[in-house]
Fold Peroxiredoxin.
Amino acid sequence: MTSFRTLLLLSVLLLVFSLPAAALEKGDIAPDFELPNLSGKLVRLAQYRGRIVVLKLATTWCPTCRQQMEEIGKLADFLDDSDVVVLDVFLQDNESMVRDYLAGKALPKNFVPLLDDGQVRKAYNVYLIPRLLVIGPEFKIRRDGSLIMARELKKMINAIRQEKSD
């Protein structure tokens, strides 16, 4: 019986880890949403059309989500200079948890923490976190995946900015 349970557990783990990290294809239009920020003001993704948006889907308790936040923090000045908006959608956390989590972190000036009510989780089919999407000025998905290092994110944003200026 123990070997059956082990085999079953291994099968489930294999299934979970074989799932793709992305649910949207490059070039898809980003699903719009409207969520409250930490002050309760409603923020829509669509209000940032025409700008590059980094959309992070995560929680406060996930270790890899924390690592992704550190990578974004490394780019705070670059993101500010590039006028990139960072929308951080917290999927399972309340306002107090998010405020505690963000305290003392290096954040870009265009950093907007949002509290998901389930609509983003559903619209973006979130089953793995962290998930980081880059949305171009034309509102199309340029990247949808898991953890990305600061150097790669900067390279991607510079490429989008170059396209925009051509």
